[in-house]
Amino acid sequence: MKLVIGNQKTYLNSEEINDFIRETNGNEGVIVCPSYLYIERYINNSKYTIGAQNVSVKKNTSTTGEISASQLKSMGVKYCIVGHSERRTMYNETSKDLVEKINRLFEEDIKVIFCVGEDYERKERGMTKEFVTTEIKEVFDKLDQDKLDNIIIAYEPIWAISNGITPSRTPLNEEIEEVTEVIKKLVYNTYNKELKVLYGGSVNSKNVDELNTISVVDGYLIGGASVKKDEFNYIMERCK
Ligand code: PGA
User: Using a 6 Å cutoff on CB, does residue 203 contact ligand 1?
Assistant: First the structure.
């Protein structure tokens, strides 16, 4: 069994989201992170456990356009993505910002889906392990160590996100396995925790069966395929 988390980004409009909710076979073990606008519709439907894609670094205060952790909690949100590469690069989110966001989420007992992953240049230079280690340490070292159990890590190589180039069987599935093992060892040896580590980056119905053979991977963070009804139904079925 693998954990399935859908990161729906800004993909679906109001009508399409109703259709998606109606025609997918969710269950509470599957987490969907819809646009903020649709959280209430998902909650009312109760087919899925709900996550958010982002949270404010601030508590409830004068911050136009932001959504706070306590607002998410009050809507019934149970998880939140932090450190997605799209936010790190497009909105210059730093490790310091991520620590603040995670602290806000911990205060509200919302679990964290913490994303790490290298870009293509670093991969080519053989820096993947060093880079994800730094991304984890810069944040984990600054958090309340007693709360680290509330984090799921998602390893998402930036070069594999949203482009359909999924790492193929050899050697790249081995690469996913190797990096996942590095992350698990780091978290165990440094923080004495055994956390779930997911893979993300162009997971779809065509590669999920092959990815499922990597036993060290605990599940998937899925973007594009999490808004296509048939794709998502298939993936959920194969990960039960
Ligand atoms: P993708 O996105 O599945 O479309 O590559 C994954 C993600 O960005 O979390």
Answer: yes
Alpha carbon 217 to chain centroid, angstroms = 13
The three-class DSSP label of residue 136 is helix
The rounded distance, in Å, linking the Cα atoms of 237 and 229 is 12
201 CA distance to ligand 1 middle (Å): 5
Is the minimum distance from the CB of 223 to ligand 1 under 6 angstroms? yes
Structure confidence by residue, pLDDT tens digits, 130-182:
999 999 999 999 999 999 999 999 999 998 888 665 554 334 788 999 999 99
Nearest to 166 by CA among 207, 107, 124, 114: 207
> Rounded CA gap, 98 and 88, in Å?
9
CA dihedral for 193, 195, 200, 203, sign (positive or negative): positive
Contact 221, 200 (CB under 8 A): yes
Q: Is the CB of 231 under 6 A from ligand 1?
A: no
Q: Rounded to an integer, what distance in angstroms lies between the CA atom of residue 221 and that of residue 155?
A: 9
For residue 97, give both structure tokens: 């910002």
On whether the pTM is more than 0.90, the answer is yes
Residues with catalytic function? 84, 156
DSSP string, 7-26: E-TT---HHHHHHHHHHS--
